[in-house]
């Protein structure tokens, strides 16, 4: 079972946290901090698995993570999940985000936390993997979005929106916002024989 | 920098384009959230962030509580609240609005509302109750999206007690035409199964249907359930093996639609699940395993492509192959696969390869041998995780020959790591290896020193405990143990002479104990020098009180020879007035002992041996003292729980406003009090504290913390005998093979590397030292950790101290054992303060204590029974009713006269205090009843007459046969006593010849079992019948418990036979009516927190359906109907004399809505189950 899904950026700012088991508010924050601490000090060329910290529940649990540009995607799972399977699930998740947001970046995750949660809910339900097929997930999300559009009715003023955001002063945000290598597939391995 | 900004801005429109359609409302929201985020990013400190969020939350609060806020704005506010919560700031005022949003909004708002609810609330949050109806409505909605959302929220957060309300609707969804709905419903049911397995028991058949669903997605979802079920009980699902194999075959063969492919691998996640299930099913089962050989082989073959996900499948495949009954061809292929993993340059695969090796190496050590060079390389890998995994692997292949190298590697790793989890884990492993395989004393002590200094105060407490025990018990040869101790002394002196400021407390404690106990072994060592070192320790800052106590007690042992008196004087001056009672007490003891040399040599003899220790658990040596004190007018001793109870009664009102006026809560109150007495004398409280950690850990191990462990909170601490692993040791064959293996190993490695450079040579040396002794012939004996290794430190088999009760001293008292005497002398006024009576400790004594009764009576014996003291009499009367055999039977006898509660449930409440009200009567009618209930009644008499006279009038079940063999027939009868279930077992000799030495044993983990009488019978004449009885008490709620037992007897001389039997008891056997008034019911109802609701079948009869139904329940379940008002009825019962369970029944359409509440978690569930059953069977 998946115990928790965390996304945070290189500075440890949480961008999404979803717990499938109940922890107190304080423990959750502590888990996020501890996980960031564990994950962030690892090099790029080491394995993507980490034996769980004391906090999230001892030896049975492990952290499986991927690092994309500015963001860390961390899944905390117990022994009933396949490590490599989850690793690819993260990839599917990110690819799906990329499709839904058209070239996803950290800002998308900040401004559309609810959408990201909705996408996640189509993949993982109550800690169990529900769907791994990207197209299926997108179909579900689209169906929901259609309702949204029909409800919203007349289009607003996109131009105003853009200018509003442009005027907005974002001193720190712009750094590494675009995740350039988001669509990079897992590099193929040399022939396995 | 500027181009980065530009890039961002160019990205923004595309980001905003998503929002452009929703329109103006959305725009303002974006800017609000946007400005929040912008402000946050501008901040430089955490403090500023806090301030900002506080302001934001205030604004939010205003917004959500304003009536003018539209749904859309609310939606936006909710997203902001989510953001704040994610950053760790509580926004609890929005919770209710999140629920409102989910209740009232349109689909769009609902989605945000549900999302917020699932992020904010947890399963036990009260507000969730408000959501139940909304979920129910949405589940029945015609809008698919609403149904989906409801199912999602249900599987995320849903109150356990409310599951019955929506269960039928969710079940219905299993047949929904849309596969996505079916799939979500399956997962929701799985979630229900995880949190409340009782409630979904009836739909297992539907799970099976889901497994056969025409849509592969639904089938995949159902595998989650099956994986869990099979993990719990593989035997129940063996017949499904064929289906799983067929499914996997089809998936592997590419029969699934192309949609299910991921990187052209057909449904990889599905394959992984199936392989796991197969691995579980085939474990140790040849016939089942044979079914899957083919498909595993095919999976291995097919999965040879080059994507990450195929490796995931391969890994699972390999694991499955090694889990099931082995087939050599497959294992070979799998081994090759593991090799590829280990050798892979991809680090993730290397990690998994090592994991697989670790798993496999227990079956096939050769595999590790093949990859030894890779393993060596991994030891130096820059990635700590890989290193750690390698050490784990090495841990599994450790033997006497490579232990030094492996432990060295582990210690090296320990030096580098700073993560607590790793340290605790590794330290434990090193200690285990050191104890098992240590080559010599020196190494062992050195290694343990490292363990203690690294492990510090975090490590498992049993490591120092077992180390000290090993030292104290010694090895098989006396000389050997002497050497070991001597070496320890040497080494610790050296440690203390160096800078020891950084040493952890635990290590200091060990050092001081060893020095105190064994420093006399070292010839020519000046005691003063040791004392000096220890005194220095005593005065150092940062040393805890606990450690100081250890040091003081060591100094006490060293209080001999020149300068001893001065030292004692100095210590007493320094610590005799310490604020800490423990230290003060130690100092006082020191003073006493230093003054009285005789006492000292008697209490602290040199070279205490373990075997000679005899503990007088009944403290009989104190009898005279107690008698004298009592004669002098001292108050008699009262056990802590009793004192507590008395105190409780005094303050009854302030403690529990409602409960205490009722008999029910009184009894439950005394139960809890026993575990948490607050009225304790200082010293016993202290020592109680020091034992607590080990009690919590449930370890039956030595506890060496603190100094005095003889006294605990509950009085004399009972001590459980640890079954010694007196390992019969055969010298492992490894030593013999070592030389040849060593040769073989290095041969192989040199072949692998034709051009050995310098570095390689080193590695090969390492390899040969690591893998020495690993080989095919001795593989099994090396690998199985459970098998007896050739242990250096063999403990002497200890004679079990057999006392009638399970109360013996704590083992750790090797050094202090005799000191308990001293303690008792020192506590001058101990009668009132100190627990003198060994009190059977509920949390310590094993549950099944047939000897319990006898130990009880024994312990009481040292209260003079001449009855001169009023107080003493009073005490006996107030004794817990269930404590002594006499009490129970007499109480029963007393009750019988009044008629049983169950037989006539309208009778008066039996107050627990009743026992003290009529003290004299029962001792009189006691004797007659007891005597007549003896054995040897003949079979010809009606079985009912066989029942002991005092039980005959109580309600009882029919007599059932339990077991029988050629000479003995066992039958049983349940007698429902108010405070317990009495199990009467009839032993009938079916032959003519007498049977000798019959002994009955009964076990049940969930129940408290106490033998009343007759479980040991010397002779049973031909055709004779004997009766033995047990009282069974249920404390927790269990729907059904199984008890097992054996009867052993001698049919002929010297020919012992055993007859096993087992029987099941249901909760219904333990339910008793609770007679209370409607008013009391109302009060109780409010004070209970555990509840369950469900709709039950309503029985139709000629009378009012409610009355008919309740009567039916009363008939089968011993409930008490408190009142019936219109269409509502209230019913009460309780678990024996313990927790009450209240039922509130209301006619609701065609069914009976029942709401159960109790103070005991789980009880409502269980009672509901039996109500349901009773009505269905009616």
Automatic annotation (TrEMBL), chain A:
Protein localization: Cytoplasmic vesicle membrane; Golgi apparatus
Membrane topology designation: Peripheral membrane protein
Gene: ap3s1
Domain AP complex mu/sigma subunit: 1-147
UniProt xrefs under CDD domains: AP3_sigma
PANTHER family attached to this UniProt entry: ADAPTOR COMPLEXES SMALL SUBUNIT FAMILY (PTHR11753)
Organism in which the protein naturally occurs: Chanos chanos (Milkfish)
Xref: Gene3D superfamilies: 3.30.450.60
BP GO annotations: Golgi to vacuole transport; intracellular protein transport
Name recorded for this polypeptide: AP-3 complex subunit sigma-1 isoform X1
Pfam families: Clat_adaptor_s
InterPro entries registered for this protein in UniProt: AP_complex_ssu, AP_mu_sigma_su, APS3, Clathrin_sm-chain_CS, Longin-like_dom_sf
Assigned GO CC terms: AP-3 adaptor complex; cytoplasmic vesicle membrane; Golgi apparatus
Alphabetic keyword roster: Cytoplasmic vesicle, Golgi apparatus, Membrane, Protein transport, Transport
Family per record: Belongs to the adaptor complexes small subunit family.
Function, as annotated: Part of the AP-3 complex, an adaptor-related complex which is not clathrin-associated. The complex is associated with the Golgi region as well as more peripheral structures. It facilitates the budding of vesicles from the Golgi membrane and may be directly involved in trafficking to lysosomes. In concert with the BLOC-1 complex, AP-3 is required to target cargos into vesicles assembled at cell bodies for delivery into neurites and nerve terminals.
SUPFAM superfamilies: SNARE-like
Coiled-coil region: none
Source species, domain of life: Eukaryota
Automatic annotation (TrEMBL), chain B:
Record keyword Transcription regulation present: no
UniProt feature, compositional bias: Acidic residues: 870-882
Keywords for the protein's UniProt record, in alphabetical order: Membrane, Protein transport, Transport
Name of this protein: AP-4 complex subunit epsilon-1
Pfam families according to UniProt: Adaptin_N (PF01602), AP4E_app_platf (PF14807)
Topology in membrane: Peripheral membrane protein
Compositional bias per record (Low complexity), positions renumbered to this chain: 725-746
High-level lineage: Eukaryota, Metazoa, Chordata, Craniata, Vertebrata
A single GO cellular-component term on record: AP-4 adaptor complex
SUPFAM superfamilies recorded: ARM repeat
InterPro entries: Adaptor_Complx_Large_Subunit, AP4_complex_esu, AP4E1_C, ARM-like, ARM-type_fold, Clathrin/coatomer_adapt-like_N
Region (Disordered): 677-703, 715-765, 777-821, 833-895, 917-936
